[in-house]
Amino acid sequence: MLKYANPTFFLPLVAKLLPWLAGATVAAFAIGIWGAFFSAPADYQQGETVRIMYIHVPAAWLSMFCYATMTASALGTLVWRHPLADAAQKAAAPIGAAFTFVCLVTGSLWGKPMWGTWWVWDARLTSVLVLFVIYLGLIALWQTIEDPGRAARGAAILTLVGVVNLPIIKFSVDWWNTLHQPASVFRMGGPTIAPSMLWPLLVMGIAFTLLFTTLHLMATRNEILRRRLRRLAIQTATGETNAQPTHRLTMTGGAE
Amino acid sequence: MNATHAGFILAAYLICIGVVGGLIVVTWLDHRRLKRALAQFEGRRGSDAP
Amino acid sequence: MSPSPLAALFSREIRVARRLGGGGTMGVIFFLILVTIVPFAIGPDLNLLSRIGPAILWIAALLATLLGLDRLFQADHEDGSLDLMLTSDTPLELVVLVKCLAHWVVTGLPLVIAAPLFGLMLALDPQALWTVTLSLLAGTPALALLGAIGAALTVTLRRGGLLMAILILPLAIPVLIFGVSAASASTSATTPFWPPFLILCALTLATLAAAPFAVAAALRHMSE
After folding, report:
1. ipTM (interface pTM)
2. Does C157 sit within 8 Å of A144, measured CB to CB?
3. Bridge partners, A197 (sequence order)
4. Contact in structure between C64 and C107 (CB atoms under 8 Å)
5. Which residues lie below 8 Å from residue C98, measured CB to CB, with a gap of 6+?
6. pLDDT per residue over C193-224, tens digit each?
7. Cα gap C203→A118, rounded to integer Å
8. Quick check: A150 and C221 CB within 8 A?
9. pLDDT digits (tens, 9 = 90+) for A17-34
10. Residue boundaries of the structural domains of chain C
């Protein structure tokens, strides 16, 4: 029962916070999109397509922020064995994958009119693609291991290995890219960005972060409920005995 | 030229809305399903108890 | 038992690999088949082959290292010897290191030895043969150690092979990049040999230092 202690505190808190967060997200998106479409001017070089930036850049930022959240949760899982950290970690992976996907697709849609191709093996794009693949691997690991506690610890180790590797991957992809310099490299943003374009971008960044927080809390709550349901199902299946020995029965694979 | 680019911008925003909206709907449906299943368990337990 | 438990473990690993999978021959045959298949896919143009030859050999090595990797800890998990390793006095990190070394000797080293021969089939010039072989020698241990992380994470899964590949291959990208850069140094004038080769060595050494801890942690957590 001790394990229930924290989630029972967490669930009412989420129920109380969610409407406010959802409202703030909608408000931030309303201001941000108004700014992106009506207030910000079209870029003198890129024309109207610069408006894609207002979702592309925040999505890119969130794709990394989400991995940082997962890393923190992974530490919570491995060091403190906190069930809430397990749930937060599992909930973050699909959201991170979704934001990375949005970043890749909007980048591609931005690249087609700007570069003339859907995809360039540019260092930045390639690193994001690798990040996306790592997210997919984590989701696959979560889905394959049945026991939630073990899946959480496995995913936590992989997340930490990924954190160590991501800078190395970034560095090596940069090296690789300078080696095979593409014909025309388009440098994004440049040193200065006009304030009239910067503020909608920042507002959109806040909106995306709020959206992520809302989604993450919703998904974490789902994971807690899913665990509770699983435990109840096992308890009724094994005839209301102790919850502890059922842990062994549900192990996948192995030699039992 | 402007018209073709409008298509790209529209597509980017629609895909973004689609992915995020899909995520919200899936999470929400998942939540409803879980709540219903949990309520079912509570009900069964209540009827079993006496 | 031999004097050192680690030496005993090493010779056991080699013996098991020789009896079950024919030792290194299977990996080399797979390597040969991959190298044979590529010209059928892209055509027998020797100029093209010699240009992308180092890359072909590296991708073949990457795929060949995955062979049998899913059984690296799984077999021990099933027959219970993994529990012995977990509870023994010898640090699990060293056990992991020895197992990886044995796995590399059985799968990676034969590839390194066979690489010059297959390089000839891909019309590599003598200097490229050297660079490919050296880069494979420096890089394949890192591949084996990274693979061990995936193998440990999927240790309890019956069909963990595909998942393992999905988990490992993104992490192997840096090794591949610097390996191929060093290997193709002689074929393209723009790249020098030493910088990518030294970075490759650094990657291998860093993996050698860090991966056993990740593998041991994964084994402890996944098999408890």
Report:
1. 0.88
2. yes
3. none
4. yes
5. C6, C9, C10, C13
6. 888 899 999 999 999 999 999 999 999 988 77
7. 33
8. yes
9. 999 999 999 999 999 989
10. 5-222
